User: Fold these one by one.
Assistant:
Number 1:
Amino acid sequence: MFSLEKMINRCRPGHGASCALCCGSHNYAAAPEEIESIFIDRGLDRTISIHGHPEDCSGKKLFDDAIQCPNVGMSREDPGIICCLVYDCTARENAISSFFNGTCKNFFCAAWDSLTDEEVLFAAELMSDWYYYSLFINDIESLKEEFSTYGSPQHVPVNRLAEIKEKLVQRLIDEDGK
Ligand code: SF4
Ligand code: SF4
């Protein structure tokens, strides 16, 4: 079992990277830039902190049977970083509170116990974003392979980075689109 205290936070590791893949951040039939603008708008909307139940959705999904939680957003204080807007909201409806406490708070993806901190930081520094970083840390085998080949983000050639990104998007489509 991993120890949270000693670990780099996989969801927010620094270097401009962040993840909310398990919340459905990538489950939109839209380009990454369009998804990002939805996240920015949600974070700006201070009058509605919670946008719906996590099992609701706000846009056309890429995969109908997967989650697209309407509470993923970017807060004004942390531009570029995706987060759960429910965390900062104390006035939660019962149904949302129950899902949040029963499911969200207890979920840890494989990146928590299958990756080392060094591998997570390699991915964070290499991608420095929410879109590709999320996909990379959830493709454990590929990340381990690239880390063992290059060791440092600075050693990854530009064309190799483009190939990695392309492969990650393809995997997203192939594996979740079954
Ligand atoms: S997929 Fe893993 S790293 Fe990403 S938000 Fe969920 S728990 Fe955090
Ligand atoms: S409520 Fe927050 S943690 Fe739960 S699925 Fe939505 S964004 Fe993720």
Number 2:
Amino acid sequence: MSASESPAGDASGVLIVGGGLVGASLAIALDAAGIAATLIETAPPRADAQPSYDERNLALARASVNGLEAIGVWCHANAAATPIQHIHVSRAGEFGSARIGAGKQGVEALGWTLPARELGMALLRRLDECTWLTRLAPATLSAIEPLADGWRARIQTAHGERCIDTALLVGADGSESFVRGQLDIAAQRHDYRQTLFVCTVTPERPHAGRAWERFADAGPVALLPLAEGRCGLVLTVAAEAADAVAGLDDDDFIALAQLRSGWRLGRLSRPGRRHSYPIQRIAATRLTAARAVLVGNAAQTVHPIGAQGFNLGLRDALTLAELVSASADPGDAAMLATYATRRAPDREGTMAMSHGLVQLACLRQPLLAPLRSLVLLACDRLPPLQRALARRGMGFRGEPPLAMMERVP
Ligand SMILES: Cc1cc2nc3c(=O)[nH]c(=O)nc-3n(C[C@H](O)[C@H](O)[C@H](O)COP(=O)(O)OP(=O)(O)OC[C@H]3O[C@@H](n4cnc5c(N)ncnc54)[C@H](O)[C@@H]3O)c2cc1C
């Protein structure tokens, strides 16, 4: 059953608000399971119109790629993806570093990098193939009213207002979620007072599938391997410095990037167009309400430097699709309680890890330096610790959705 156009009768089906990376993935996963749903999105259905289908380079965990393969998205994206064969984490000016290699973990890649724009185009192509899905875009949710068996959603479209009654309302509408506010779910916020600059650069030496992450007092910096020998630069600067960095010409910007990321890949050159993002941590205090659930950034927005936001949101989406497809009623209270319980360890662990990593890595206390170096060395040298870290890094956290599990050939 798809969400019904009122006043046709009882609320039915699933209504997904937000067709970003997570909402679109959920819609596709439900369709693949034969569940009818309605997806509404404010932006027109084009990759260049969608705010998050932009130039940011996503590091996709291995489990996420398994999931995207299972729902038929990866075949539209893999030509643009670059495998991550090694991860190297260090801190400027301190001894010790942690290296994780795919070979040692018995896999051909720890994950893949892919521009968000390419993933967005792959999702749009796969959405076009859906059978049971109704798509409304541009369409914006403007109000919800409770019904005995679901929600009535008021939606503004180019052709006027439409009302849809749904048995399950899904808020996949991003960090400033309108659905979250309408459901009276509070959100805890932390402003990192940092801005992230993202662009592509060309390193002098081949990246050889290496992802570099380097922490420093001024914030973390990362270089992700991309196609054609390029790298995706992610540079964090203090919020007060953001305007000055935005105003730098290419030569001065590349000099700053070089200073912050080091010389392991030789000289950096040819910076692409710069994009900047202010960084906040936003965590909903609950994941569910009666016949409603939050997924992706609407549920939790984490610091991008840990490369966890979409990976975590995809685990939300695929877990929800798995539970809905096994339930006679998509808004069933027991099913939603199972969802919240099943997502809690992964969600809380990933949020704590992302936040803790940034806090610890950027703290300036001199006494912390040797301890930090020892932690990095332990991660590098102790195989059980490295295995545990690699498994988490590959996205196998909590109770992963079945679609993400490794397939035995
Ligand atoms: C610089 C940067 C680098 C990143 N790198 C990584 C990475 O390497 N790996 C990783 O896993 N994650 C990464 N992330 C995080 C990742 O991009 C996000 O977690 C992900 O895009 C969130 O997707 P979403 O669908 O939940 O939310 P969004 O992308 O925000 O989508 C929400 C959608 O809802 C729509 N919407 C909002 N309100 C309404 C309404 N009322 N009605 C209808 N539609 C509505 C919006 O138009 C939007 O399209 C990065 C983020 C940044 C900023």
